Structure formats: structure tokens, C-alpha cells
Amino acid sequence: MADSTSVPKHVAIIMDGNGRWATSRGLPRSEGHRAGTEAARGVVTRCRELGIRHLTLYTFSKENWGRPADEVKFLFDLLVRFLTRELDTLLTQSIRFMVLGELAELPLATRKVLSHVMAKTAHCTEMTLNLALNYSGREEILRACRRLIAQGLPPEAVTEQRLAAELYTVGQPDPDLIIRTSGEMRLSGYLLWQSAYSEFAFPETLWPDFTPAHLDAVLDDFRKRSRRFGLTSEQVSAQ
Ligand code: IPE
Ligand code: IPE
Ligand code: MG
Fold first, then answer.
1. Which atom of ligand 1 is nearest to the CA of 21?
2. Does some domain include residue 89?
């Protein structure tokens, strides 16, 4: 059981390895995505139990549009089914649901369900669950710049705070910990601005096999890290 004194405020996960999980079992990739939603359910519940206040799951990148059309369609249908089924649980656990990414470009049926679940859970206060959907960190930063320019700000008024306030994550802390499953060690455009001082973990486990116990192991390791934010160890110990 994790010790509540050093629970990260924000955990962000790149849920990777669904396709490999399925292929290694002789199954279609879609089965990997289906199994991946079960893993997501377990991890959401575990984070809520541990008192992690913000959880962000990389669900669909902008680049993922380039996958075969039937896989893309399956993913969006799966998302609609997952959210419809999970709404009651989100409400019972007081989890606010949010989307990081460009909603307007998503299929109408998906948009409707996303908006419905966001509206229904808007009052929930125990945890925020963000799905990064149709997400690209570079696009997010560009969008923020465009929004600042549209406000007519003079260059000296463009500060880190002002820019961060135009990101999808406005009002939420930066991720303390970013986990990518399946042994891949890259960000693939995830939370590029927000990850400036994040800790990273790259468990080998493929996402559909990632259980709450795997999460606990990553959190145990996170607890042992020394985060210095540019200071010396002595300064950090004196804090
Ligand atoms: C992650 O699993 C899910 C999405 C990107 C939607 P992948 O589908 O990328 O699985 P691998 O990397 O091919 O194994
Ligand atoms: C990143 O995984 C996106 C999601 C997990 C949703 P990918 O599998 O798409 O990333 P690359 O292509 O291996 O970098
Ligand atoms: Mg992948």
C-alpha cells in the first residue's frame, strides 16, 4: 500500500502496447484495445483510492489518425461504449471527466458522449480524469500561442503563466510522474510543456497486462526519487 504522504498529485500515462499484446496472442489488434480498457478501469480506480487528484491517460494522438480506418473507428466506438458504461462509476467515485485535445474534429457520436460525461461529472471533486484525445503537445502549444496573439498581448506580457493558462490543462498541476508502458521510451508528443520537471517510468509491461499492483510498484519507485527542480541536494533537504 502506498504511503499517502508522497502520493503524486498528477500521474500521466501513455497506455502503450495494446497491439503487441493482441498480436502475441494471435488476436486482432482490436482485442488488445478492448483489453486495454479493462486495464484503464483498474488504474483509474486505484488512483482514486490512493488519493491521486489528477490522472491523464493518452488515449488517441493526432498521429493515430494515420492508422487503418477500421482500427480508428473501433477505437472511437470503444471509447463511446466505455464512457457510457463508466459514467455511474465516475459519479459514485466523484471523478470529474475532462478531455485534453481538439473536440471539434472528433466524430459527432463521440463528441456527444464526451460532452455528456463532462457535463454530468463537472461537479465531482475527488479526482480529475483527463483523456488526451486527438492530442498533440506541439499543437497544444501552438494553439495557446495563437490564443495569446488573438488577445493582442504585447510580447512582454507573454509569460509562462499566461501561456499555461491557454493549455488544455489550465488549472491543473503539471504531471509529477509520466508512465509509459510496453518498454518504449519516448513521449510521442505527450504533454510537452507540462512534462518539464516530470519524473518518468518505463515499465516493460504491455498496457492490457498493467494492473493496480504494477502501478503500486511504479509509485514505490517514484517515492524514492529525489526531485530537485534545479537546486542542490542540500538545499532540497533543508526545505
Ligand atoms: C496504444 O497501443 C493504444 C493507442 C495508441 C490507441 P498501441 O495500439 O500503440 O499498441 P502497439 O504499440 O502497437 O503495441
Ligand atoms: C502514443 O502511442 C499514443 C497513445 C498511447 C494513445 P503510439 O503507439 O501511437 O506512439 P508511437 O507511434 O509508438 O510513438
Ligand atoms: Mg504503440
1. 14
2. yes
- Say whether pLDDT at 30 is over 60: yes
Minimum CA distance residue for ligand 2 atom 9: 64
Asked if residue 167 belongs to a domain, the reply is yes
Does ligand 1 have an atom closer than 6 angstroms to the CB of 64? Answer: yes
Read off φ and ψ for residue 129, nearest 5 degrees.
Answer: -105, 115
C-alpha cell belonging to residue 177: 510522474
Question: Where in the sequence is the domain holding 143, given as residue range(s)?
Answer: 10-238
Contacts of 15 (CB under 8 A, 6+ apart): 36, 39, 40, 57, 58, 59, 181, 207, 210
Measure 59 CA to ligand 2 centroid, in angstroms: 9
Residue 32's pLDDT band, with cuts at 50, 70 and 90, is very high
CATH number at residue 21: 3.40.1180.10
Give catalytic status of residue 18 as yes or no: no
pLDDT at 3: 44
Is 87 inside any structural domain? Answer: yes
Q: First-to-last CA distance in the chain?
A: 26
Q: Round to whole Å and give the CA distance between 108 and 119.
A: 16
Instruction: Indicate if 134 belongs to the active site.
Output: no
Residue 2, domain member (yes or no): no
Evaluate: CB of 75 within 6 angstroms of ligand 1.
yes
Q: How many domains does the chain fold into? A: 1
